[in-house]
Model the fold of this input.
Amino acid sequence: MKILITGSSGFLGKSIFEELENEGEVLGLSRNSTNYKFSLEKDIPVFNDNFDVVIHCAGKAHSIPKTEIQKKEFYEVNVQGTKNLLKGLENSIIPKKFVFISSVSVYGQEIGTAIKENHPLEATDPYGASKIEAEKIITNWCKENNVICTILRLPLLVGKEAPGNLGAMIKAITKGYYFNIGGGKAKKSMVLAKDVASLITIVAPIGGIYNLTDGHHPNFHELSLAISINKNKKKPSNLPMKIAFLLGKFGDILGDKAPINSLKIKKMTSDLTFDDSEARAMLDWKPQSVVDYINNNKI
Done:
C-alpha cells in the first residue's frame, strides 16, 4: 500500500507518519518534506507516485486572526490548498481512499455538551468557515470520483510537545503564571494524537464523518494538576469568578491590547464537549484518557 500524508512535518502529520510506517510505503508532502516539497496554497503538486490512501493533514491551525491578511490565509491554506491537492491527484491516478483531518470548530460552538456529527455546521470565524468549505469540496470530489471519503473532526490534540492552546498551557504552568478560574470546573474535549493516528487504517476503508475525543473530557483543574505533577511544578492557583469577571470587563475596555476579556473568561469557564459514540460503535474506537497519558508520560 502506498500512502501520502500532507502536512507530514506538522504535529499530527508526524504522529500519523510514525504510526503507518509499517503499513506500506509512506510519503510526505509539506513545505520542507524530503518526498514532495510543495506549498499547497500556491502550488498544484506534481506526483510521481500513485497512492492508495491520501491523508490530508495540511492546513493553517486554529488561531485568532488580527488582520485581514491573516483572515485570508485561512482560505488560501485550508481551501485553496485543498483544491490544489485534488487537482494534483487528478493529474495522477486518483486514490481509492481519502482521509481529511477536520476540526470540531466547524460546528461554530463555544459552549455545549455532547455535540454530535449531525449538529449544523455554523462556524463563521475564518478558521471554522474554511474547514467547512474544505469538507464540502472533498466530499463532492470523492463522490464524483468514487473515492471512499473519511472526515475526522478533532478537538484539542494532546501529545509530546503539543502545540497550540495545550502547549501554551504547559508553558504557563512551567513558568508559574497559570491559574484556573472558578475552580477550573469547565470540561473540554481533547484527544491523543497517537490514538487518532492508530485509527487511520481502520477508518479509511469504511469512510464516514466522525468526532474523535478521549471520552473523558477533562476539566481544567484535573488537566492542569496532571501537567503540574508531570512537570514537577506547584499546583496551579485559582482565581475566583468574581475577580475574573472584573478582569474580563477591564479587558473589554482596553481592547485588543488586553490578554484577557469577557469572551475569554466565558470560554474558560464553560463546558465544550463532543460526542464520539459514532466512532465507538462503527470503528471500535477505544482511546486512552488524556489525563492518564499525562500521568504516565513526559510531555
In short: The mean pLDDT is 94. The first strand starts at residue 2 and ends at 6. Residues 2-157+190-213 form a domain with the Rossmann fold fold (CATH 3.40.50.720). The chain has ten helices and 13 strands.
